[in-house]
């Protein structure tokens, strides 16, 4: 059963060390199961419980230790055998090819589209990665896959993103939102990137799943109503606590 979680901070450190992706979930059952293959049965729930307690106590030192533990767990993915993170995860994951990473496949291998619509979306994502990534601080393909899995396995209906950039991470979220019937609300203050994201959402065919908000997110986020299932903070790092 999917359980509610009071934790509002789950930090995923990008393996390259070049960027920091902060992902927040209001549910954790399936997400915990997704990582159990790496941390062992039940260990992900224990890890989340510890992070939850540290967050509630505002114990940043303990939170830092736990996040580092999660980072080390991710770095060990290459040595994991079959049954690691992503086993049986379904759409968008490459089939098992030797016991590494997602679904037993190398995380660097290309995702396998499940239908023509998904093929179109993945093609746009690859084009963005190859031709628009410079200076955009986009997430990695591996993290994009994780975002999609997180949305689907928690049945997220409302995803909020602060820092749209060119829409790359947002389109990964939309891959999952297609399955859940949810929506993405994404904020950016840069007009050039805002317009570029608009074009990318349109050519990926996911515009109907996205509400773009232009302006200073320190102000615009106050207008969000209702519960949020996933919050992705990828803007000015010094502003995270304010957001």
Key phrases:
243 residues; 8 helices; six-stranded mixed beta sheet; alpha/beta; disordered N terminus
Task: Chart the SSEs and their pairings.
Layout: E1 10-13, E2 20-25, H1 29-39, H2 43-56, H3 60-75, H4 116-131, H5 141-154, E3 158-162, H6 168-180, E4 183-188, H7 191-204, E5 210-214, H8 217-220, E6 230-233
Parallel strand pairs: 3-4, 3-6, 4-5
Antiparallel strand pairs: 1-2, 2-6
Helix pairs in contact: 1-2, 1-5, 2-3, 4-6, 5-6
What can you see in these coordinates?
It contains 8 helices and 6 strands, in the order ββαααααβαβαβαβ. With 243 residues, the protein is α/β, with parallel strands linked by helices. It has a 6-stranded mixed β-sheet. α6 (168-180) links the parallel β3 (158-162) and β4. Mean pLDDT is 74; it is low at 1-38 and 78-107.
Q: Beta-sheet strand percentage?
A: 5-15%
Gyration radius from CA atoms, angstroms: 17 Å
Category by helix and strand content: alpha/beta
Summed up, the helix count is 8
What is the molecular shape?
A: globular
The N- and C-terminal alpha carbons lie at a distance of 30 Å
Element string (H = helix, E = strand)? EEHHHHHEHEHEHE
User: How would you sum up the major sheet?
Assistant: 6 strands, mixed
Helix percent band: 40-55%
Strands of the biggest beta sheet: in what spatial order? Answer: 1-2-6-3-4-5
The tally of strands reads 6
- Unreliable stretches (pLDDT < 50, length at least 5) are 1-38, 78-107
Q: Mean pLDDT score, rounded?
A: 74
